[in-house]
Amino acid sequence: MKIQFYKYQGTGNDFVMIDNRNNVFDQSSTALVQKLCDRRYGVGADGLILIENLDDLDFNMIYFNADGSQSFCGNGSRCAVAFAKRLGIIEKQALFLSTDGEHEAWINADGQVSLKMHDVLTFEKGDDYYFINTGSPHYIVQAANVKAVNVKEEGAAIRYNDRFKAEGTNVNFVNYSDSSLEIRTYERGVEDETLSCGTGVTAAALSLADVNKLDAGKIDINAAGGQLQVSFKRVGNEFKDIWLIGPATEVYQGEIEINE
């Protein structure tokens, strides 16, 4: 059986996209997800996204990490919105369901997608780290020279330590300035560095807001794969009205033979 797929990327975070409104894809097959995401024997991607019908919202987005596990993905969600526009499901605004609940998003004529994230009502601050859940868990540590960090080695050491090895965590290495930051991310489920991570960028931006005592604003983020922005408002220790903003681009489309 042949399945049509599309490839999208959001600041280097890349995804296999499948229109599954007619249930052409067996989402119970972890092996199939792994095969399609494999960079040598499949299409190659950080994750796989299915777009499915919903009665009361524009669409349901199901996200798989490259290892077949499911989670919420910020950049994947932005790419899903761009894909939904391509499919004619939406025009400028989207209301959709993902792993962590409902989301609102907007896409402009230039392909910039603004995704509303859920409020962050609590976070953990240690002597030398932050731990913030923005739909996926993120451990954030400051690095004086982000480019010099061995992200895969140092990230895996935290992701598989005694605290996190059971459920895992994403790990972000950041360098702060007044209203911007540089970031590199180790992603669980990919088990390697990715060029960008939407939930990680969001978590890092909120940590910068806490470091610099910002009550509101828009943070510029320089990820390995490109630039993103996060806007927010803060009330006490709660972050609300959080938006992840950046490009989402179609790379190519094709068909792949699936041996059932």
Written overview of the protein:
By secondary structure, the chain is of the alpha+beta class. The chain has 2 domains: 2-108 and 248-257, Diaminopimelate Epimerase, Chain A, domain 1, CATH 3.10.310; 124-246, Diaminopimelate Epimerase, Chain A, domain 1 (Roll), CATH 3.10.310.10. Helices cover 17% and strands 44% of the residues. It is built from 4 helices and 17 strands. The chain has helices at 30-37, 74-86, 151-159, 198-211, and strands spanning 2-10, 13-19, 47-52, 59-65, 93-98, 101-107, 112-116, 124-125, 129-133, 137-142, 170-176, 180-187, 192-194, 216-223, 226-235, 238-247, 249-257. It has a 17-stranded mixed sheet that branches. Strand 15 and strand 16 form a beta hairpin. The radius of gyration is 18 Å and the shape is globular. The N and C termini lie close together (7 Å).
What keywords describe this structure?
260 residues; alpha+beta; Diaminopimelate Epimerase, Chain A, domain 1; globular
Radius of gyration: 18 Å
* SSE ordering: EEHEEHEEEEEEHEEEHEEEE
Strand content: 35-45%
Largest sheet: 17 strands, mixed
CATH architecture of the largest domain: Roll
Q: Which structural class fits the helix and strand makeup?
A: alpha+beta
Assign an overall shape. Answer: globular
**What is the CATH top level name of the largest domain?**
Alpha Beta
Detail the poorly predicted runs: none
**Contiguous helical run count:** 4
CATH overall fold name of the largest domain: Diaminopimelate Epimerase, Chain A, domain 1
Q: Tell me, rounded to a whole number, the average pLDDT.
A: 96
The CATH superfamily label of the largest domain reads: Diaminopimelate Epimerase, Chain A, domain 1
